[in-house]
Amino acid sequence: MGHPFPLREIARQAGLSEATVDRVLNGRGGVRPSTAQEVHRAIADLDRQRTQVRLVGRTFMIDIVMQAPERFSTAVRTALEAELPGLHPAVLRSRFHFRETGPVDEQLATLDRIARRGSQGVILKAPDVPEVTAAVGRLAAAGIPVVTLVTDLPASARIGYVGIDNRAAGATAAYLMGQWLGDRPAHVLTSLSSGFFRNEEEREMGFRATLRARHPGRTLVEIAEGQGLDATQYDLVRAALDRDPEIRAVYSIGGGNLATLRAFEDAGRECAVLVAHDLDHDNTRLLREHRLSAVLHHDLRHDLREACRLVMRAHGALPPAGPTLPSPIQVVTPYNVPPAVR
Fold first, then answer.
1. Which of the listed CATH numbers 3.30.460.10, 3.40.120.10, 3.40.50.970, 3.40.50.2300 matches domain 59-163+300-327?
2. Would you state the pLDDT for residue 48?
3. pTM for this one?
4. Which of 66, 23, 26, 72 is nearest to 252 (CA)?
5. DSSP string, 169-205
6. CA dihedral of 250, 294, 71, 81, whole degrees rounded to 10
């Protein structure tokens, strides 16, 4: 029977003689079943410890590159820094490259600087455009693994995606919207920060398909390119309300919910249902004030822990594992806000 450890090391771990271990490993008999179990348990212990030994003294520098509103990038930074101590004995250091908006060329320049300077990994939230896909390819060619966060780049050379199933999230939002609106007449506003982020496109498709299937008479009105920023979001929502007096509900895919609610208030209109994403500081406050109907939430700490592990596996510091599953979608109301967020 082949094994990765010297006979003497296994014997020391099991507290048995080398001869006994040799009999077990070569199936020669004359050994009690409990003794054989001790030998195999010792090998399993050594294997786990070997993983830890590989990590001791290893430092991984990870770059987090994101285009997102400040409220979300702050939530990501907080979640990652909370997870880093739990990744010991490896030491992970992080560099943050955050921008709220701007031309894609700025993000490309950041990714290319990282490729030239070097990094152990990149966690990336970026638009799904060919230029970004090409930049990820350049990082991969430089030996830098890339993990996409909350929005995927499936045609790129990224090693994995962490986040929710965005189509399922949109379908969940449609189910909630239909339940809460019931038979009341209302047009539903869908609000995207940008049409270039795959996660938002998938949420919108899941929402639209499910609402049409369950409530075929319900009218949807779409706005986009507010970048999730309050200043631009307010103008887009206010213009939509002026054009359509029947809008009474919102599925907020891309954020900017303070501005959305202010636009309804300034127009003298009620927002009967508002379903949003992410428990950032704005949405947590609005939920606590009962101004949001529900927030579709996923655990960013879990996502970032998985992203870091994917990077470490890419460097051979952790053993291989199965495919990364989508994060669970939590429906959060004012009455079940997770304690860590409160």
1. 3.40.50.2300
2. 64
3. 0.80
4. 72
5. HHHHHHHHHHHHHTT---EEEEE-S-TT-HHHHHHHH
6. -150
